[in-house]
Amino acid sequence: MEKDFLKEFIIEIANENEKKIAQEKKKKYFQELGKKGGLKKKNSPHLSKVISFRVTEFEYEENIKNAIKYNIKLSTYARMVYMEKELKINEFQTDEILLQYGTYFKKITNLLRNREWNLFENKKEILQEIEIIIDLIKQYLYSKKNE
Packing angle between helix 74-82 and helix 87-112, nearest 10 degrees? Predict the structure, then answer.
């Protein structure tokens, strides 16, 4: 009877020890992943130099309104104006509109694929034209991204 108790006790301790070892291995595995992975480091040069200039109260208010309008910080907006990059802010708005159009066209194609819309004689033509438009939007946006 003591031998059975001793065997069970040894087996139970061995199982607990295996569980501890497995937890430690799992912990070390995630630690190694943390060392290997993580966020990519920024390759862009850090903004280290300061340029300061004075503006009138009216100019300041206009700049704040424009920064809020474009949903960026005042310093970012001022830097873009100073570097004459203000036009690029407006390009993102057209891209957002095109993306919305693309999603709307996808919704229209999904609606047209339902049985209820089988009454249209030129349903296939409409679907093909919508697919062409969606492809053109994608090509335009990807070409801008690659530039």
Answer: 110
